Amino acid sequence: MAAERRADVVVVGGGPAGSTMAWSLAQRGIRVLVLERARFPREKVCGDYVEPRGLRILEAMGSLPRLEQAGPLPITHSATYVDSACAYRNPIPFYGVVEGLPPHGYIIPRDVLDDEMLAAAARAGAIVHQGTAVTGVRFEPRGVEIEAGRGTGTVRYRARLVVGADGANSLVARARSLTVDDPRHIAVAQRAYATVAGDIDVGEAAFFFDESLFPGYGWMFPMAGGRVNIGVGILAETRSRLGVHVPDLFAEFVERLRHVHPQCGRLELCAPPIGGIVKTYGGHGRNHFERGVLIGDAGSFVDPMTGEGITPAMESALLAAPVLEAALEEGRFDETRLAEYDRAFRSYFDPSMIFLDLCATMLRNRHLARPWLRALDRGCRIAQEDQAFARDAAGYFGGLDIRPFGILGEMWVRVVRDLAFVWPRFVAGDAGGTSVGDLVGWQAALTRSALRDPFWHARWALEVQRKWAALLAAAPAQRSDPRAAGLV
To answer: I need a surface site. Which of 324, 339, 358, 459 has the fewest CB within 10 A?
Structure first.
C-alpha cells in the first residue's frame, strides 16, 4: 500500500466535467486532486462537437487559444437529410444571434480536447494523477476514503468531499446507490473518423434521419484536413425492443453516406468504429449525497434530443463548484447542505431540458417514425425559405436560447394555417402532402402502436402526458433560457 494522499476535494474522472470542476475549485484556492484512470491523450467515443456555449467556457479556462492553434474548422452551416434526401442546407440559424457567444462551433477530437482541459486544471493548481483507476469509495464520519490502482500498486486517498465525474458507469454513483440505468434515457452510439477526397472549405454539420435510425440519427461532422467524424446513435430501449444491432446500423449508414452526401463519395474509415453510451437529462436522479456530488455523464447531463454532453458536463461542474466551496467554508458536508447543487442545476437546466425531454419522449414510439419523418421533411423545407421559422424551430435540435412556448406557438400557428386551407386544396385536387394525409397517417400509426404493443403504448402515452404536465407547470418560470447567458 503506497503512502496516503490528502486533499479537500478528490475528483474522480478527468474528462470535460472533471477538468472543469478541478479548474474552478483550484481557481478558488481549494486543494483539489483529479484521479483519471487513463493516460491522456486517449480516444473517446463522441461526436466531438463543441458548440458556442462550450467555447465560451473554454475561453474562460484559457484553453480556447491553445486549441485554436491547430486551426480547427469553424462549424457555421448545417444540413439535414431525411430519407437520404437533403431537406435543409443553410447557415446555422441560431449562431451569431446570442450576444457573447461565438458565431460558430468546432469539432475537436476528444483526445485533443480532454488533454488540454486537464492541463488547464493543472495550470490552475489542481494536482492530477493519470493512470489511476479508482477501485473503491468509502464514506466515513470524518471524510471520504478512495482506493485506486496506480502502476503495480495501490494508493489510498482521503478527502473531505468527492466528485463523481467518472462517466455513465460511475463507480462513485454506484458507491452511493445512485446509478441510473433506464433504457428510455440511454443512447447507444458508434463513431469513427474518416477521410474524404480534398479539403473541406465550409464547416457544415450534416444530420441524417430515416426509419432505420429512429429514434436517433446519423451525423457527419467535418474537420480541417479532409477528415470527418461520422457516427450513429439510437435509443437503448429501441435497440433492446427491436433487436437492433448497432454495428450493422453503422455499416449501413457509412454505405448510404457514400451515396447521398456530395463530399463522401470516396469516404474511407481511418480505423474501425468504437461504441459507447450516454445517459440523458430526462433520466437523472438525485445528484448529491453526503460528502459529494455527481457531474457530467455520471449525473446524466446530456441533451435528450441531440445527445450532446460536452457543454452540459462543463456547466454542471461550474454549478457544483460554488456549492462545494461553501460547504468547505462552513465545514458542513451533509446531504441537506449539498442539496443546493440539485436546486442550482434544476434552475439552470430545467427551462430548456424539460421541453427537450418531452420532445425525446414523444419520439420514442417507433410506430410514429413515418409521420414524424414526414413532419421533419416538411418543416425543413419551410425553414429553407423562412429563416425566422428556422431559428425558432431549430430550438428542438441544438438551439442556444430555447424558449419552449415560443417554439410551440410558432408550430401551432403553422398547423392552424394548414388546417384552414387544407379542404380548399383537397377539393381542388391538391391534397398531396397536406394536413388531411398527415392526420390520417398519425391516426393510423397511433392505432398500430396501441394494437401491437398495448401495455408499452399505454405506459408511453401516460409518460407523454406526465411530461406535458411538467412543462405546463414550469411555464411561469420559462420566459428565458439561463443557458444562453451562461455561467462564465
So the answer is: 459
